[in-house]
Amino acid sequence: MSENGSVGERRQSVRIIGAPTDYGQDRRGVDMGPSAIRYGGLSEGLSEAGVDDEDAGDLLVPRAEERDAQYRTPSKGKAKFLRETEDVCSRLATEVRESIADGYTPLVLGGDHSVAIGTVSGSAADAEIGAIWFDAHGDLNTPTTTPSGNVHGMPLAALLGVKEWDGVDWANAPSLSPENVAIVGLRSVDDAERELLRDSEITAFTMSEIDDRGLDEVVDDALAIANNGTEGYHVSLDLDWLDPTIAPGVGTPVRGGVDYREAHHAMEQVAVDGGMRSMELVEVNPTLDQHNETAELAVELAASAFGKRIL
């Protein structure tokens, strides 16, 4: 352990990439998430974790108000701002892939959760990877099952090529297999997602299971799933995974999430495991927040995931 309380002897290099998009959901403001997270002390938090960080700035993302909001879709159904989401995610995938090739661990700042399509596609471009989805939601809707048309409820389905997402080159991550995907903290699922999960090799750990078994044991299982036969894994941290009493600044809050200490412990388990290949922080909406506390919590959790410790 290093003098600053971080895990490991070799300093890790992290490249921060902002993806300030709100194309994936109805509630405006989440595009300001990257700025709020940086303002919340991200560079300082990573430094305290013993990490060397390089900030690549934000992708250029035109505002949703300047774009055509009509529904578009890979084949049928409905998906809002799909053309714009494709553009952002394609460019983000390139940034993530190049960051890994340069020896960095990419840390992507959303933006809504649709940006995960780009982050994971880039991370999986040259390796077989797993994924741990810390989220209240399944993100497994498709353009024909979505109740809203919002792509932030579809990224995992897109990456795995579910139904009409199958064969959509910019969205699919063929080296990500369902049996290496674990959703942790699930508590809000649409009927179509529930049916898909029952027939899928994805492992979903609900909050009820966390209550029964404890988060420590569940996260250990999730890490084993994501590591099984892979070259590392992606961590997708949606801030609505946490209970809204401690993370109010999210667009789709769901009561009954993990608490402050549980969240930190889960990220500490990720750091100790050492297999994280890429990470994203998504759905921080400062217009819904209180004194930037959700963004600051995102910073704290990222620092824990990269190795910050009390001692």
TrEMBL record:
One of its GO terms (molecular function) is metal ion binding. Keywords: Arginine metabolism, Hydrolase, Manganese, Metal-binding. Its cofactor is Mn(2+). One of its GO terms (biological process) is arginine metabolic process. This is Arginase. It comes from Halolamina salina. It holds the Pfam family Arginase. It catalyses: L-arginine + H2O = urea + L-ornithine. Mn(2+) binds at H113, D135, H137, D139, D238, D240. Residues 1-36 are annotated as: Disordered. Its EC number is 3.5.3.1.
